[in-house]
C-alpha cells in the first residue's frame, strides 16, 4: 500500500481497526469537521494498563507509517495514562480508563458526529 495516499476517513478507520486488533476498549471515531478547524477526525480508545496503552499507540503509528501516513506529533506517555498521536487531519487519543473518565473527551466533543463506536 506504500505510495497510495489515504484520505482522512481511511486513516481514521485504519486507526480504529488497529486499536481493535490490539484489544483497545471503548473505541470511538468522531467526525469533528463541523465543530473544529484543525482536524477532521478524533479516534479515542482505552488501554487497560501502561503496557497496552503503549502497544496500541505504537502499533497505530507503525501500521499507518507502513501505509505512507506520517506522524506529525506525539504527546504524552503510557505512564501518564494518555498518548496523543497527531496525523494532521486525524488525531488519536489512547487513554487509561481513569484519565478517560476524568477528561471526558466524548462529552467535550458531544456535538461531533459519531462514526464508529466499538465497546
Automatic annotation (TrEMBL):
<comment type="subunit">
    <text>Interacts with ribosomal protein uL14 (rplN).</text>
</comment>
<dbReference type="InterPro" id="IPR004394">
    <property type="entry name" value="Iojap/RsfS/C7orf30"/>
</dbReference>
<dbReference type="GO" id="GO:0042256">
    <property type="term" value="P:cytosolic ribosome assembly"/>
</dbReference>
<dbReference type="InterPro" id="IPR043519">
    <property type="entry name" value="NT_sf"/>
</dbReference>
<comment type="function">
    <text>Functions as a ribosomal silencing factor. Interacts with ribosomal protein uL14 (rplN), blocking formation of intersubunit bridge B8. Prevents association of the 30S and 50S ribosomal subunits and the formation of functional ribosomes, thus repressing translation.</text>
</comment>
<dbReference type="GO" id="GO:0090071">
    <property type="term" value="P:negative regulation of ribosome biogenesis"/>
</dbReference>
<dbReference type="GO" id="GO:0005737">
    <property type="term" value="C:cytoplasm"/>
</dbReference>
<keyword id="KW-0678">Repressor</keyword>
<comment type="similarity">
    <text>Belongs to the Iojap/RsfS family.</text>
</comment>
<protein>
    <recommendedName>
        <fullName>Ribosomal silencing factor RsfS</fullName>
    </recommendedName>
</protein>
<keyword id="KW-0963">Cytoplasm</keyword>
<dbReference type="GO" id="GO:0043023">
    <property type="term" value="F:ribosomal large subunit binding"/>
</dbReference>
<keyword id="KW-0810">Translation regulation</keyword>
<dbReference type="Pfam" id="PF02410">
    <property type="entry name" value="RsfS"/>
</dbReference>
<dbReference type="GO" id="GO:0017148">
    <property type="term" value="P:negative regulation of translation"/>
</dbReference>
Amino acid at each position: 500500500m506504500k505510495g497510495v495516499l489515504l484520505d482522512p476517513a481511511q486513516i481514521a478507520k485504519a486507526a480504529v481497526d488497529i486499536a481493535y486488533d490490539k484489544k483497545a476498549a471503548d473505541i470511538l471515531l468522531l467526525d469533528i469537521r463541523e465543530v473544529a478547524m484543525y482536524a477532521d477526525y478524533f479516534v479515542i480508545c482505552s488501554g487497560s494498563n501502561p503496557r497496552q496503552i503503549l502497544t496500541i499507540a505504537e502499533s497505530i503509528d507503525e501500521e499507518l507509517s507502513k501505509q505512507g501516513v506520517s506522524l506529525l506529533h506525539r504527546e504524552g506517555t503510557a505512564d501518564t495514562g494518555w498518548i496523543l498521536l497527531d496525523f494532521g487531519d486525524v488525531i488519536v487519543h489512547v487513554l487509561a480508563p481513569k484519565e478517560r473518565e476524568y477528561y471526558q473527551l466524548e462529552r467535550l466533543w458531544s456535538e461531533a458526529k459519531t462514526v464508529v463506536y466499538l465497546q
